[in-house]
């Protein structure tokens, strides 16, 4: 295999890995956004909660399994408490109120984390046995841990599909989204259902956060930078559509990674090195927003609009 | 002056004026025989707080080792946090100069804070002795007789790394830095003394935390070595991902001193073994003043001093030498300049002189991360540059 093709494959894997991380966040966000009608800016904070809980547990116990449990439990629990204490009062309000309240939550969580853990980032090691790289194709070595993230992300996608399309709870979720009053009239506790949906979204955000921990540094505000990309994913995929979240996330992940990898190189053929690099870095970070604009031009409701 | 005040008021309103107002009662000027006040503005909160703590502690150590004096003159150190906010640093400086009648200031860690504070201090006829940040403008066109850098001119960090990569025989280097002023300066500085070819030059985003795409590019470019400058947490994330991608084993990494201080090393751990870097000082320097400093610092604070601590310690010694020459006075800046210029102090770096722009002319050393008694530590190797000044001193006219 030529080096150029190997590089392209590796970058594609990087894109998919970023994509599934985004998917885990976007799935929760799009469910809450599309089904409950709430804009939750604090979704990134749940990602941070998962990462911190796992990092602290991993440092204290040294067990990756306990860290996994702690991260998931903390994120889901915090998510449900937030839904119960704050968001429940906002369902009937307009989006501006929701944005204000959830922005307040971001500040609350960030400052709270500073008080508890300080500003120094925490570091977690990749679990033993998942370190190092494996040869996926001739000439293409890829870190095992990142492959695991891809596998987990795709597994979650399949699980969510089955949950929403094939189970009774999924049926209630779908019904609750379109005919809230009718579901309530039939005697279903819609508020409990919403709390559970929110908890599930929080759990997925926490999963994304705890898996990102060993790669990135676990620090205050880690959720905000990825939240913006997550919103792009939700808009591209179609609000409320989990399938759209999956395709949107992988698309955004691949486009962002490939632009970062190849645009400076292409520009360098037509202009001086350092200018090309600076301009390329700028263009690459704009790329996903251009993509979003293009998608919205062609399909104003996203790639896979949820049936309304 | 009025514009100045207004600016201060505006930033004061934004940042909360309460603590300033509480202490704004004017105090009497220096009474005869009272200790000389030195104002220290440094970063004691936020991600860079450990640097400020080292600078404060080392300066106080130098004073304590002379029984509360520097160069035979009794001194009093006033320490304030700038919170890594230029506006806050400016306010503290204003208060130090107006209310405390302080003429001699020091302590700032970050160039952006220094950029806001230094002009105020120098315009008001004060003296600033920098234990760390030394941006190019203050070394070149905007140099000032009353601005002294004890650390290095910022570019030297990267120039020495470029020289080290050349010395190590790395013919093709892949270089990376975030796309902002200090990042672009870093790569420019590196290329100034690096003699090989650049296999790839990549600017990352300052808010980036995942470097997978860059790792793939590095591997595809198949260079002899990698140079990267990513400050603080970014650098730790970059290093860890470099290790995870399996690059550390085959591709030596060269760094500038701030990318691998004792704190970063503790966060990265064993995996950093083998990294090359350059520095003007290291805790294992064999000269007597350095040994005394390291032992005293460890004895008093129970931790290893970083090079930031060493710079601050040297700053205190340099000030002491100047005070000895002026009889403990700082009112006559011309006399202070004459007493400071010869740098008559026992530097922990072994030798230390000032260039024509009041910036250090000094040797740079190669360091390597090695396992010492089971723990990764920075070990000094060969000399990389001898009597190295900076590229801007020619533009400096006092």
TrEMBL record, chain B:
<comment type="similarity">
    <text>Belongs to the leucine-binding protein family.</text>
</comment>
<protein>
    <submittedName>
        <fullName>ABC transporter substrate-binding protein</fullName>
    </submittedName>
</protein>
<dbReference type="InterPro" id="IPR051010">
    <property type="entry name" value="BCAA_transport"/>
</dbReference>
<dbReference type="InterPro" id="IPR028082">
    <property type="entry name" value="Peripla_BP_I"/>
</dbReference>
<dbReference type="Pfam" id="PF13458">
    <property type="entry name" value="Peripla_BP_6"/>
</dbReference>
<dbReference type="InterPro" id="IPR006311">
    <property type="entry name" value="TAT_signal"/>
</dbReference>
<keyword id="KW-0732">Signal</keyword>
<feature type="domain" description="Leucine-binding protein">
    <location>
        <begin position="35"/>
        <end position="370"/>
    </location>
</feature>
<dbReference type="GO" id="GO:0006865">
    <property type="term" value="P:amino acid transport"/>
</dbReference>
<dbReference type="InterPro" id="IPR028081">
    <property type="entry name" value="Leu-bd"/>
</dbReference>
<feature type="signal peptide">
    <location>
        <begin position="1"/>
        <end position="31"/>
    </location>
</feature>
<keyword id="KW-0813">Transport</keyword>
<keyword id="KW-0029">Amino-acid transport</keyword>
């Amino acid at each position: 295999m030529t080096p150029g093709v190997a590089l392209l494959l590796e970058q594609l894997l990087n894109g998919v890995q970023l994509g599934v991380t985004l998917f885990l966040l976007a799935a929760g966000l799009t469910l809450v956004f599309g089904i409950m009608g709430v804009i939750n800016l604090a979704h990134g904070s749940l990602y941070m909660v998962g990462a911190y809980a796992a990092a602290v547990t991993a440092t204290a116990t040294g067990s990756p399994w306990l860290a996994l449990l702690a991260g998931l439990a903390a994120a889901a629990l915090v998510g449900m408490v937030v839904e119960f204490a704050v968001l429940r009062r906002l369902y009937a309000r307009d989006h501006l109120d929701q944005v204000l309240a959830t922005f307040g939550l971001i500040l609350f969580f960030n400052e709270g984390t500073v008080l508890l853990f300080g500003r120094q980032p925490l570091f977690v090691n990749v679990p033993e046995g998942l370190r190092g790289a494996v040869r996926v194709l001739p000439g293409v070595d890829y870190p095992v841990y990142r492959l695991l993230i891809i596998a987990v992300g795709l597994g979650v996608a399949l699980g969510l599909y089955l949950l929403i399309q094939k189970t009774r709870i999924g049926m209630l979720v779908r019904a609750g989204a379109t005919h809230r009053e009718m579901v309530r009239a039939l005697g279903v506790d819609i508020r409990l259902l919403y709390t559970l949906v929110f908890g599930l979204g929080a759990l997925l955000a926490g999963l994304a956060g705890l898996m990102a921990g060993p790669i990135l540094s676990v620090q205050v505000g880690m959720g905000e930078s990825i939240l913006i990309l997550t919103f792009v994913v939700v808009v591209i995929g179609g609000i409320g559509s989990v399938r759209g979240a999956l395709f949107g996330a992988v698309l955004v992940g691949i486009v962002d990674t490939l632009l970062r990898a190849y645009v400076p190189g292409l520009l360098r053929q037509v202009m001086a090195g350092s200018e090309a690099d600076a301009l390329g870095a700028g263009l690459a970070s704009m790329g996903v927003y251009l993509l979003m604009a293009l998608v919205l031009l062609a399909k104003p409701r996203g790639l896979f609009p949820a049936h309304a | 002056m009025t514009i100045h005040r207004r600016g201060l008021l505006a930033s004061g309103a934004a940042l909360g004026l309460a603590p300033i107002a509480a202490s704004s009662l004017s105090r009497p000027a220096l009474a005869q025989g009272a200790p000389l006040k030195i104002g220290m503005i440094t970063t004691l909160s936020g991600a860079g707080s450990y640097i400020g703590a080292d600078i404060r502690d080392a300066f106080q150590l130098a004073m304590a080792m002379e029984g509360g004096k520097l160069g035979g003159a009794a001194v009093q150190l006033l320490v304030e946090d700038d919170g890594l906010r230029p506006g806050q640093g400016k306010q503290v400086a204003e208060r130090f100069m107006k209310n405390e009648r302080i003429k001699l200031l020091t302590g700032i860690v970050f160039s952006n804070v220094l950029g806001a504070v230094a002009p105020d201090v120098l315009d008001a006829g004060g003296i600033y002795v920098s234990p760390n940040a030394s941006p190019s403008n203050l070394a070149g066109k905007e140099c000032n007789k009353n601005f002294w850098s004890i650390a290095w001119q910022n570019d030297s960090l990267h120039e020495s790394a470029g020289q080290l990569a050349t010395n190590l025989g790395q013919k093709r280097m892949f270089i990376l830095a975030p796309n902002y002023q200090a990042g672009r300066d870093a790569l420019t500085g590196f290329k100034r003394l690096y003699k090989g070819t650049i296999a790839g030059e990549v600017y990352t985003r300052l808010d980036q935390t995942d470097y997978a795409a860059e790792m793939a590019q590095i591997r595809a470019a198949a260079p002899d070595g990698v140079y990267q400058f990513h400050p603080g947490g970014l650098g730790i994330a970059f290093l860890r991902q470099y290790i995870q991608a399996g690059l550390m084993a085959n591709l030596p990494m060269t760094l500038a001193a701030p990318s691998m201080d004792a704190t970063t090393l503790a966060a990265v751990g064993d995996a950093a073994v083998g990294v090359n870097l350059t520095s003007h000082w290291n805790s294992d320097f064999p000269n007597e003043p350095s040994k005394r400093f390291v032992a005293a610092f460890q004895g008093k604070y129970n931790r290893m001093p970083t090079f930031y601590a060493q710079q601050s310690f040297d700053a205190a010694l340099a000030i002491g030498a100047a005070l000895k020459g002026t009889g403990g006075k700082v009112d006559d800046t011309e006399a202070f300049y004459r007493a400071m210029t010869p740098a008559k102090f026992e530097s922990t770096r072994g030798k230390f002189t000032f260039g024509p722009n009041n910036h250090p002319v000094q040797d740079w050393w190669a360091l390597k991360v090695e396992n010492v008694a089971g723990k990764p530590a920075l070990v000094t190797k060969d000399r990389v540059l001898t009597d190295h000044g900076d590229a801007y001193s020619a533009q400096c006219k006092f």
